[in-house]
Amino acid sequence: MYIGKVIGMVVATRKDDSLVGTKLLIVQQTDMNGEPKGAAEVAVDSVGAGTGELVLVSKGSAARHIFENRSSPVDAAIVGIIDSMEVRP
């Protein structure tokens, strides 16, 4: 799981049947200070996140467990919207 910032969205009129009705967002992984790190990726939104929000992203097979169809071709899923963070040195 990692912290990321939603930087855009993907519109796909044709996609796997198990993804019909889902929202696909582009997420940029960030460090604890909110600075970008790594590559951006597409994640399925399960919580109603929007552009500019900090989110929690689940990766790999754990990301598929939020959907009823566990054979969906999902590798990343937004599972939370971050309201605030406190990082202690």
Textual characterization of the structure:
With 89 residues, the chain is mainly β. It has a single domain, classed as OB fold (Dihydrolipoamide Acetyltransferase, E2P) (Beta Barrel), CATH 2.40.50.220. It has one helix and five strands. A five-stranded mixed barrel has the order 1-2-3-5-4. A hairpin with a 5-residue loop joins strand 2 and strand 3. The mean pLDDT is 91.
Condensed summary:
This protein is mainly beta and 89 residues long. The chain has 1 helix and 5 strands; from the N terminus they run ββββαβ. The chain has a single domain (2-81), classed as OB fold (Dihydrolipoamide Acetyltransferase, E2P) (Beta Barrel), CATH 2.40.50.220.
Tag the structure with descriptive keywords:
globular; OB fold (Dihydrolipoamide Acetyltransferase, E2P); 89 residues; mainly beta
> In order across it, which strands form the biggest sheet?
1-2-3-5-4
Number of helices: 1
User: Which ranges are low-confidence, i.e. pLDDT below 50, for 5 or more consecutive residues?
Assistant: none
How many angstroms separate the termini? Answer: 21 Å
**Shape, principal axes of CA atoms:** globular
CATH fold label: OB fold (Dihydrolipoamide Acetyltransferase, E2P)
What is the topological layout?
Blueprint: E1 2-10, E2 23-30, E3 36-45, E4 54-59, H1 61-64, E5 76-81
Parallel strand pairs: 3-5
Antiparallel strand pairs: 1-2, 1-4, 2-3, 4-5
